[in-house]
Every structure is written in structure tokens, then in C-alpha cells.
Write a structure and sequence with these properties.
Length: 448
């Protein structure tokens, strides 16, 4: 669960998460990757006249992002693990870890590549449609294969096509939304996670016994969303030249950002929190089947269909409340630190109580912690950027703290479960990472 964050670094609105995606199972590695494209697009448009308003753009952005999160969470958290378990029941943890880790590399690579290509072309709609149609084709392929190798190839292709779609959709806010309305746009994009994530898991749980049908349904969802957005909201072609920085200067810029004391600690805290969260969330279906004592008649996919809305409602609630209170009290560190610490502590609940009730409590508290953290931490980061004129670039650097840990998380989780013998060590390791992430906030000096 990649998070999809849209932040205007020059005039930052309330943060909207992602998954984060995302909490979003394996697929949300991409959710953080959208930040770079959004930041870059914002920087490019701040000196230009505001884009004209387009009727229906806001609700269609919500539909487009909800469709994306439905694919990431429904497929990544339910259908893909179910398919892997059917193919390799004895090695499902290791196989899912390998597939998740390799596919996350594709997600992280294709998002900025597709974003750069759409920047260069000056248009978004062709990339949105192309990515969605590609996702429909690759999801259909994924539903038709029956070996671990082909499943891995198929999921990597889905990540590539979905991140092409995501990169173009993410860039629409800085391209087409006036600066005065970007806070509203970001809030709608943020709602895509609880709405799309919940709908995705519900659909996946109903089609888990018919994998091919499930994949086709998700392909159709994203294709229809792309068609609606492209037909009813016209492109606003960009005619200015897109400057291409030399590779050496890009690396130097990355290193210079992390040389800043406060930004470096914010980067470390975000990376640890994301790693701890996704190490556990990516294996939730297996946790429900192998670690938790479910009530009679309740299978793991059905349990996911109950837990996900609980978690997503908590994420939505804490995102709004945490963001508003941190603004009102002009305090960021306490919200970020406490929410990260809570995320670490609640990992003990399924260890102490490996029951259905324990998982319900865990999902609610973990959602509250993750939502508040992602909302307020993004606001905190915008306040510790090294240089205002490099805001877009540095927000892109922060994307590494979102995407990088999600690449590592499947490998780390798989090694812990197989090497240390079960899911209890996984919960404890995830909790420890989140707690260390909370401590990483303390050295930040420039924000209260």
C-alpha cells in the first residue's frame, strides 16, 4: 500500500496520502512515485497563467485515482497473493516476496520515465489512455497464467502500465488546476485511497475464487476511468521546452538535499515508517490465513473485505483531523512522532492477541496512525526543504523514502518470516522500524 501524494511545494495544500499507498499491498510502491511528477509539474506552472477551469475535472480526478487504488489494493493485496498461494502453496511467502520486490523496481522506474515522456510530449490524455489500455491487457494476461515465473512477469508489466497511467494522472493537478483550488484537488486525490482501496478489496474478495474474472474486472475499471477523464476533460498542451538536467547535476542535487540536517532526518523517519508499514501490510492475506484464528465460516479474502474498510475509514479520519489540528496548533513534530510511535506499538496487538478481534483493533489503530503520519509528515517536509527555489526537486528526492522501502519491504518480510519462523517476528520487526522512525523526528530543529 505505495502512498499517492500530491503536494504543491510552493503553496502546499493539506497533504493527501497514499500506498502508500498506500497502503496498498505490493502495488502501492508506485504511490509515492507520483510525488516527483506532481512537484515537477507544479514548479513548471508557477510562473505561467493559471489553467482554465474544466467542468467535471475534480470528480473525474477522484474517479481516476480511486480506480488506480482499487487495482493496487484489490490485486496487490488479495488476487495476487491468492494466485501465488495456489501455484506455490509451500513457498508462497518467498515467491510473493520476490515478485513484490522485483515488480516494485518496475513501478519506481516507470513512473518517472513515463512522467518525463508525457512532459516532453506536452500532453497527458494519450498517456492516461495508453497506460490504462496496457493495464487492461496485462491484467488479462496475468489472469491467464499458471506459473510463478509468468505471474512475476505479468505483475511487473501491470506495474509498468499502471505507473504510466499514474504518472500522467498525477500531473493533471499542477497542469490544469488553478493554485487556489489545489488544496481541494489534493483532498479529492487523497480520498481515492479509502474509496478505491475499500472497493478494490471488496471486489477482489468476491472474485478470489475466479481469478481470471477478477483481473478482467479491475482492468475494465481502470480503462473506463481513463476513458471518462480523457473524453470529458480536454488536454492543455504545454508548448514550453522542458529542460533536461545532466545526470551528474541530478545526482549532486540529490546529495545536496540530504546534506541538509532537518531534511535528512525527515527523509530517514519517512523511510523507516514506510518500511515498517509495508513489511506487514503486504502479507496481510497470509497473516489472516496462517497466524490469526478467524471465526468459523470466515476465510482470509472475506476477512480482508472487512478489515480494509475499517483501516481506510481510520486513515481518512486521521488524515483530516491530524492535518487540521497540526495547522491550528502550529505543531508538526508531535503529530508525526506520536503517530509513528503508535504505528510501532500497535504491531504488538496481533502478537499478544492473534484473534479476529485483535486484527480489528490493529487495523483501526494502524490506519489512524498511518493516515495522521502521512498527512502531517508531508506538511512537515514542506517546511524543512533546503531551498524554496528547489522545492519541486527536493520533494522528488523525498519520493525515494516512499518508493525505496517498498522495494525492500517484500524481501525483508520474506526473509523474516522464513528465517525466523512465522509472523510474530515480522510484527515485532515492523513495530521496531516504526518506533525508530518516530525517534528520527526528534533531531529536526526547524519545525515545532
Amino acid at each position: 500500500m505505495a502512498t499517492n501524494e500530491l503536494t504543491d511545494p510552493i503553496d502546499p495544500p493539506a497533504a493527501a496520502d497514499g500506498t502508500g499507498t498506500v497502503a496498498a499491498g505490493t502495488g502501492t510502491a508506485a504511490t509515492g512515485a507520483g510525488m516527483a511528477a506532481a512537484g515537477a509539474g507544479t514548479a513548471a506552472t508557477t510562473s505561467e497563467p493559471e489553467a482554465p477551469r474544466q467542468r467535471g475535472l475534480m470528480p473525474l480526478l477522484l474517479v481516476a485515482n480511486s480506480a488506480m487504488m482499487a487495482v493496487y489494493m484489490g490485486v496487490g493485496s488479495v488476487l495476487l497473493p491468492t494466485q501465488v498461494a495456489a501455484i506455490a502453496p509451500d513457498d508462497k511467502v518467498a515467491v510473493l516476496g520476490l515478485i513484490g520486490g522485483v515488480s516494485a523496481i518496475f513501478a519506481t522506474a516507470f513512473n518517472p520515465i513515463a512522467g518525463a515522456l508525457s512532459d516532453r510530449s506536452g500532453r497527458r490524455n494519450p498517456w492516461i489512455l495508453g497506460g490504462a489500455i496496457g493495464a487492461l491487457i496485462t491484467l488479462a494476461f496475468l489472469g491467464s497464467v499458471s506459473t510463478a515465473l509468468l505471474v512475476g512477469i505479468g505483475w511487473c508489466l501491470v506495474q509498468a502500465t499502471m505507473n504510466t497511467y499514474q504518472a500522467a494522472v498525477t500531473a493533471i493537478v499542477p497542469d490544469r488546476v488553478p493554485a487556489a483550488r489545489r488544496g481541494t484537488a489534493s483532498a479529492l486525490v487523497g480520498l481515492g485511497m479509502p474509496i478505491g482501496g475499500t472497493a478494490g478489496v471488496l471486489i477482489a474478495s468476491q472474485t478470489a475464487t475466479q481469478i481470471r474474472t477478477g483481473y478482467l474486472v479491475f482492468g475494465a475499471i481502470v480503462a473506463v476511468a481513463a476513458l471518462l477523464l480523457s473524453v470529458f476533460c480536454r488536454d492543455t498542451p504545454r508548448t514550453e521546452a522542458v529542460a533536461k538536467a545532466p545526470k551528474g547535476s541530478q545526482l549532486a542535487a540529490f546529495l545536496s538535499s540530504l546534506a541538509n540536517h532537518d531534511f535528512r532526518w525527515a527523509f530517514i523517519g519517512r523511510a523507516l515508517m514506510v518500511l515498517g508499514y509495508f513489511s506487514v501490510v503486504g502479507y496481510q492475506l497470509y497473516i489472516l490465513g496462517d497466524h490469526i484464528a478467524l471465526p468459523a465460516g470466515l476465510n482470509p479474502p472475506e476477512a480482508m473485505a472487512i478489515l480494509t474498510p475499517v483501516s481506510m475509514v481510520a486513515v481518512a479520519l486521521s488524515t483530516v483531523v491530524g492535518g487540521l489540528l497540526s495547522d491550528r496548533w502550529n505543531r508538526r513534530k508531535v503529530f508525526v512522532g506520536v503517530s509513528a510511535a503508535l504505528a510501532g506499538l500497535v504491531m504488538v496487538v496481533p502478537v499478544v492477541s492473534p484473534t479476529w478481534t485483535g486484527m480489528l483493533v490493529f487495523s483501526a489503530l494502524n490506519g489512524l496512525a498511518f493516515g495522521c503520519f502521512m498527512a502531517v509528515d508531508t506538511a512537515l517536509v514542506t517546511l524543512v526543504l533546503p531551498r524554496a527555489e528547489d522545492a519541486a526537486r527536493d520533494m522528488g528526492v523525498l519520493n525515494v523514502a516512499n518508493a525505496g522501502p517498498q522495494i525492500i519491504a517484500p524481501f525483508v518480510a520474506s526473509a523474516i518470516v522464513t528465517g525466523l519462523g512465522g509472523y510474530t517476528p515480522l510484527f515485532l520487526a515492523g513495530g521496531a522500524l516504526s518506533l525508530i522512525g518516530a525517534l528520527a523526528i526528534l533531531p529536526i530543529r526547524g519545525v515545532r
